[in-house]
Write the structure tokens for this entry.
Amino acid sequence: MSGSLGNGAGPGRAGEWADRTRGMLAGFPVEAAGRAAALIVACYERGGKVLACGNGGSAMEAQHLVAELVGKFERDRAPLPALALHQNPAALTAVANDYGYDEAFAHQVDALGEPGDVLVAISTSGGSENAIRAVLAAKEKGLSTVGYLGGKERGGRLGELVDVPVVLGAHDTATVQVGHLVLTHTICGLVEEALFPNKAVFLDRDGTLIVNRHYGSDPDGIELLYGVVEGLLELRAAGYKLILVSNQSGVARGYFDEGAVARMHDRLQRMLDRHGAALDGLEYCPHHPEGDTSPYAVECACRKPAPGMLRRAARKHGVDLSASWMVGDIEADVEAGRRAGAHTILVGPETAQPPPDHKAEDFAAAVRHILGVPGDVPGSTERAASFRS
Ligand SMILES: [Zn+2]
């Protein structure tokens, strides 16, 4: 009696798709994938966005690419704008109903595309009419175009139309689709490495870098804490960007204005710069929901424990948050660092719930901990802990 795997459907047949995939991956178009990633990096550097389109499995691949860009791939970092053109069923069906399905993507490229954006057209055969028309609309509007392609025709018509054709060397749809998945991951990895190459130490101000004075705003009252200058120099030498992130709700409460914060930070920078330890960035939040000074008396996304200042700085300085650290002396610092995706160190006697990745007696001890851990390895905290035990 033959079972469901009988009649030639045994292990040999079952291994066929894996064999095809191996063959396709052996000829993976590395150089073209790199050029596609470079086009997308340049697009983001000029403030553009990525549009992606395809049908069926290729629609899912468009969505997959968009998910990795908007969310994250391997690094915690600022989100990157991207849209899949089938992801609004109302718009898709309206355009298809009124202008025909062949226009479904082109119409949206016309509506949403801006010069300098990138359109990624995904078609295993390279011949999907709606993807072809989308690419023509994109060229008309000044977008750059990438093709995820494959099939017998070496990318088909799309291969001739797009700026960067990436053609997977397989003749069947299933195997080309596997290649497209690898291509998405390759592009996302290269884009993240290019746009977010830096690691940073985010630093609370009062009680971490300088002596905490009640709503301190007097530049003459700044007193650097023990070991801060030496620690900052060591962190910089180890390749970390040094970025201050400070809650300054005294502005919202009317105790001082933003000019006073600027004078404080200017003095602090000059004191540090005397030793070559000036900070790479200074972010502060002037807000508080219970303040009384317009326009600062608002709830915001930047007041710690919210992660807004870290995210803003990560965008400005191209920071991979998962390779970075937040150092502060209170629970809100730990929480902000954790929510941003950074490792966290709590300095001094306070506690935090959930606890920080590490607790340090003072700034110097925090620096020793950071430098004892390979800063660019995700999950390095756990690994470092096991080194030491
Ligand atoms: Zn704020």
In short: The chain has a mean pLDDT of 92. The longest strand covers residues 240-247.
